[in-house]
Amino acid sequence: MKKLMIALAIVALASVAQAELLATWTADGAQNLAGASTVQTGGLTYNFTMVSGSGWASGGTPAGATYAGAGADAADAATAYADGQYLYFTWDTDYTLSLDSVSAFYTRANTGGQNAQWGTIISSNWTSIGTAITAITTATPTTSTAPITTTFSGVSGLESGQLGVAFYGGTSSANTAWVRFDSRPSATPQVALSINGTMESAGPIPEPATMSLLGLGALAMVLRRKMSK
User: Fold this and answer.
1) In this structure, are residues 96 and 158 in contact, taking their beta carbons and an 8 Å threshold?
2) Of 111, 104, 131, the residue nearest 196 (C-alpha)
């Protein structure tokens, strides 16, 4: 009987959702990040989309900089958010996000925002999460940058539109003072930004994995009662 209970516990642990690659955005060759993509994982399409804040100069200088910030010269992430110097992400509203990590290439112009900070946007309030990315390097066609991975703990239950990244610490408010996700100097397209985590059903009906765990838990309780008699 004890072996059966151990087996049930192992099955229950195996049923817990594991972090997975949920969405990627690809920079086209040595150019800037060209736009958003829909990524299919495990047969599900979560429809992730990157959206610019009100102060973001989409299609600004230099040519092709689809997500070039208009200065990002705020003093901190909260101010950058208030100024509209941020990007946020939407996805299928049937799901909530538990965030595990983000990996990205960050680049800037000489006067662009030197720092980036991920955060949650709930009821129009910004809360920073994870460690800030500081001293973002400048980018040219020959300057190499390396991807930076930011990990998160306890960031769960996010609804569509509640995840964002703000840029700040620049020295100019001009469109030429851009910051962006980029993968220079690669000559071929490669992933410039990726999001890892788990998606859970936002509806009132538990998903199959949850139902399985509830069933296993109930069975374990019944077996334990029988063993104690």
Assistant:
1) yes
2) 104
Distance CA 108, CA 170 (A): 9
Q: How far apart are CA 9 and CA 216, in angstroms?
A: 8
Please identify which residue in the block is written with the tokens 């009906």: 205
Count structural domains, the chain: 1
Rg (CA), the chain: 21
Q: What is the pLDDT of residues 115-147, one digit of tens each?
A: 999 999 999 999 999 999 999 888 765 566 678
For residue 118, what are the β-bridge partners?
165
What whole-number distance in Å separates Cα of residue 11 and Cα of residue 15?
A: 6
pTM of the model: 0.77
**Cα–Cα distance, 39 to 37 (Å, whole number):** 6
Q: Is the pLDDT of residue 9 over 50?
A: no
Report the C-alpha gap between 212 and 143 in whole angstroms.
51
CB 55 within 8 A of CB 10: no
Domain that holds residue 158: 2-228
